[in-house]
Amino acid sequence: AVYDSFSSLPTTNYDFVIVGGGTAGNVLANRLTEDPKISVLVLEAGGTNSNAFQLDVPLFSLNLKFQYDWNFTTTIQPGLSNRSTFMPRGFVLGGSSSVNGMFYTRGSADDYDRFAAVTGDAGWSWDNLQPYLAKNEKWEPPADRQNTTGQFNPAVHSTTGINAVTLSGFPQSIDPMVFKAVDELGGIFHFNEDYNSGKPLGFGWLQHTITTQGRRSSSATSYLASQFISRTNLDVLLHARVSRILPSSSQTSSSGFAFRIVEFAQDLDGPLLQVEASKEVILSAGVFGSPHILLNSGIGDSRELSDVGIKPLVDLPSVGKNLSDQPAVFNTFFTNSTRTNDDILRNATLLNQVYTEFNKTGMGPLVTTGGNQISFYRVSENLTDRFGDPSSGKDSPHLEMVPGNGFFGTPPPTGHYFQLGTVVVSPASRGSVTINSTNPFDPPLIDPAYLTSPFDIAAMREAEHIMFQYASAPVWDGYILSPFGALENITASSPDDVLDEFIRNNVGSSAHPVGTAAMSAKNADYGVVDPDLRVKGVDGLRIIDASVFPFVTSGHTQAPTYAIAERAAALVQAAWV
Ligand SMILES: Cc1cc2nc3c(=O)[nH]c(=O)nc-3n(C[C@H](O)[C@H](O)[C@H](O)COP(=O)(O)OP(=O)(O)OC[C@H]3O[C@@H](n4cnc5c(N)ncnc54)[C@H](O)[C@@H]3O)c2cc1C
């Protein structure tokens, strides 16, 4: 069941304590309690969001007032836009899966084969992860039950998992034009029937974590659905913000410390509470939360911890390093069409109308995210020859471009818009998460280090060229009127320095940071967790969330997070159940 207060929990004896009821944490909570003899407590810092409108409606995910974690302190390189200080994370049951854009992209087969290569564990390869992708995915017909033949490859999908995945349940007026442009241009613009086959390059129909009823499928609505959360061996405590994991004096360990005691507070000014797991503590507090808790606990770079005034207990210099996020730019054009999503997003009467329809029928414009396609590209060989290739292989993209039928975010009061978002999905830059305080409730310091590698800015320039080339297809003649905002000063033939300035002024997070507690091979002298996701050099503590990715996968990160969590659950079960 779900509880608000520690004192109301039915017991304080649990086999596993999971820190963070987010995307990965709820997979673990569900899978481990399949065995009625195993008891699990989830400590989640956020609450539940009673605003069904915000949580359920796909179209509005882009306009969500995010359930924020504390205001992270973000430092950015000089010259970058303020937008790049914005680090959205879900701070609510379901974590980021409750507030994300719902795109379902697995990345490439090479991405996972690289995980297997760097960890020395073939279990992380694309082929070996297939059963776990299948345990997560529950393919459903789209809300409008349209004929989806030719829009995906059923052979690479599972209908038996827990988390709903579907194609768009509402057509966008631009759909035919999007693919006409692909036909007109050819070359790098080609149709890909299913970008989730392991080979993502090309233009395909977007798949999302949306149910056949047109609603968001998050880890809270799926893995904690009523038939699971009602298990008597599964308890979730909300508003429980974990500060540190403490060594257990009662435990002995060949490797030194066993960390099985979790310290947390329900009220940041209130008392610190503790709960001890008899088997393991699993950190699933996300890419910022998990390394933050490790550092607070004295697990990190010993010298850096001593400098802050924290007693180092385990020297693991890689904690908080290797932060990998994908820089993104929105490119907006005016269109002469009035059939965009802009009016719905700014006109309360219209919005009420379609929301009533959505509630009654589970259909209408609110059941999609505002664009129905996605596309992936490689940069030129010239670039990889010059800077090296940060991608995982020849079938892996460096770049993504997403068309949107309207303004991204809250639209201006007038005008109709066409959007082409560009992203560097295989970046070379690496940032960090650090602390500068002994108070565990002070925010961590985040440096996303966007565009610090010369590859990334050059790759984003190529993404902009691809975007202009795509927008120049004959079908867009008369549909795209003129560039909007800062894009007004840019053309396909702008010199590099002008394009670079535009990019730096407009870049921001794609909300896909990973890698701050990365897995590495058992004997590697870097990395934070071993291939079984146990924290190196200690007992009783694993990390299972997006922070363990050694590299960011070449797409959006929820599907890989789910797959990692599903396999991790099997590893934990194999050790204990
Ligand atoms: C706005 C947004 C849009 C996105 N869009 C997409 C998309 O369209 N497609 C896609 O594939 N991916 C998307 N992502 C990324 C994807 O959702 C994440 O990579 C993934 O959900 C991360 O899962 P996680 O388990 O690592 O962390 P989370 O799901 O963030 O879970 C971490 C949990 O830990 C809790 N927590 C944190 N600190 C503490 C603490 N100290 N004590 C207790 N609990 C704590 C948090 O409240 C949260 O519930 C998006 C993310 C965001 C934020």
From TrEMBL:
Cofactors named for this entry: FAD
Recorded superkingdom: Eukaryota
InterPro entries: FAD/NAD-bd_sf (IPR036188), GMC_OxRdtase (IPR012132), GMC_OxRdtase_N (IPR000172), GMC_OxRtase_C (IPR007867)
Residue sites binding FAD per the record: 92, 242
Keyword vocabulary terms for this entry: FAD, Flavoprotein, Signal
Family per record: Belongs to the GMC oxidoreductase family.
Protein name per UniProt: Aryl-alcohol oxidase
Organism annotation: Collybiopsis confluens
